[in-house]
Specification:
It is a single chain. With 36 residues, the chain is mainly α. It has one domain. The chain is built from one helix and no strands. The chain starts with a helix and ends with a helix. The model has no long low-confidence stretch (mean pLDDT 94).
Length: 36
């Protein structure tokens, strides 16, 4: 029971980190276009 909760939390955190990473790259690329 506890291991299932830990695994699900790890999966959720991995997904959140992946989304934040993609959004951050997209924002930085947009800033480059604006600066040019």
């Amino acid at each position: 029971m506890i291991t299932e909760v830990i695994v699900s939390l790890c999966v959720i955190w991995a997904g959140i980190a992946f989304l934040i990473f993609r959004v951050d790259r997209r924002i930085s690329s947009l800033e480059r276009k604006i600066n040019e």
